[in-house]
């Protein structure tokens, strides 16, 4: 049994309902997936950067940009299975088919192209310094204040989710964070035991919200393209 220390798994199945072939869609001159592969490699944190996919075309694009694709995904390639199970399946295949066992896994979603290598380094540093079992990336809510959220009736009448908070000034309310799929990290055995990164001892790691944009819709894509253009223009 060959034992490595840290592995990055990029779950990138073929197909997508809301944006067709989202993981290989062109994003500023590269396939979407390539941005995550290159950031993972440049971070220099991993013994192997693996793309887990059921699609030969995705596999070929991943290899072209430097990722390891030693096998195609055998299970959890549907759009209903939690992504954590796809990562666990990749870890199982690495162990059973290649004889490789890892201590720490980082799950990097392929549709977060604004996440840079420095964010991965910072996330891994925080995971180690906190002696965490599992860590989920998140961002702080900004101008969209969730404390003032409400549902609307067909007539447009609001029902506040947090009625008491509606009476408070925004600066008096505690900061609130939302998870993002950009960088999730866990001890492999802990992930196997709980089957999820969202486990009793998991912690959140805040990152810049612009870098954490997770593209699921055309609106997300337009926002990511705008921020990428602004970032390039500021260099």
Strand-pairing-aware structural class: alpha/beta
Q: Considering the protein shown, what is the CATH homologous superfamily?
A: Spore Coat Polysaccharide Biosynthesis Protein SpsA, Chain A
CATH architectural arrangement: Alpha-Beta Complex
Encode the helix/strand succession as letters. Answer: EEEEHEHHEEHEEEEHEH
How would you name the oligomeric state of the polypeptide chains in this document? single chain
Overall, the morphology is: globular
CATH fold naming: Spore Coat Polysaccharide Biosynthesis Protein SpsA, Chain A
Strand order of the largest sheet: 5-2-7-11-8-12
What's the gyration radius in Å?
A: 19 Å
- Contiguous low-pLDDT stretches (5 residues minimum) are none
Strand content: 15-25%
**Count of DSSP strands:** 12
When the domains are counted, the total is 1
Structure report:
With 235 residues, this protein is an alpha/beta fold. It has a single domain (2-137, 179-207), classed as Spore Coat Polysaccharide Biosynthesis Protein SpsA, Chain A (Alpha-Beta Complex). The chain contains 6 helices and 12 strands. The protein has helices spanning 32-43, 56-64, 83-98, 117-129, 188-194, 218-233; strands at 2-3, 6-11, 26-27, 30-31, 48-52, 100-101, 104-107, 134-140, 150-152, 158-160, 177-187, 202-206. The strands form 4 sheets. It has a 6-stranded mixed β-sheet with strand order 5-2-7-11-8-12, sandwiched between helices. Strand 3 (26-27) and strand 4 form a beta hairpin. Helix 1 packs across helix 4 (117-129). The mean pLDDT is 92.
SSE layout and pairings?
Blueprint: E1 2-3, E2 6-11, E3 26-27, E4 30-31, H1 32-43, E5 48-52, H2 56-64, H3 83-98, E6 100-101, E7 104-107, H4 117-129, E8 134-140, E9 150-152, E10 158-160, E11 177-187, H5 188-194, E12 202-206, H6 218-233
Parallel strand pairs: 1-6, 2-5, 2-7, 8-12
Antiparallel strand pairs: 3-4, 7-11, 8-11, 9-10
């Amino acid at each position: 049994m060959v034992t490595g220390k840290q592995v990055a798994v990029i779950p990138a199945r073929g197909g997508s309902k809301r944006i067709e072939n989202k993981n290989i869609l062109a994003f500023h001159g590269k396939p979407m997936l390539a941005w995550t592969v290159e950031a993972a490699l440049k971070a220099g944190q991993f013994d192997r950067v693996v793309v887990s996919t059921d699609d030969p075309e995705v596999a070929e694009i991943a290899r072209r940009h430097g990722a390891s694709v030693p096998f195609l995904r055998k299970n959890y390639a549907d759009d209903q299975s939690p992504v954590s199970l796809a990562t666990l399946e990749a870890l199982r295949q690495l162990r059973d088919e290649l004889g490789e066992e890892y201590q720490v896994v980082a799950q990097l979603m392929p549709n977060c192209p604004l996440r840079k290598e420095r964010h991965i380094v910072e996330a891994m540093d925080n995971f180690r310094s906190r002696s965490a079992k599992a860590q989920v990336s998140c961002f702080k809510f900004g101008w969209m204040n969730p404390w003032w959220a409400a549902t609307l009736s067909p007539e447009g009448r609001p029902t506040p989710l947090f009625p008491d908070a509606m009476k408070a000034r925004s600066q008096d309310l505690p900061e609130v964070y939302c998870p993002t799929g950009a960088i999730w990290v866990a001890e492999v055995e802990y992930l196997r035991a709980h089957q999820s990164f969202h486990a009793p001892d998991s912690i959140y790691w805040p990152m810049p919200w612009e870098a954490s944009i997770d593209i699921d819709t055309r609106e997300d894509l337009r926002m990511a393209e705008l921020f990428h253009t602004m970032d390039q223009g500021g260099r």
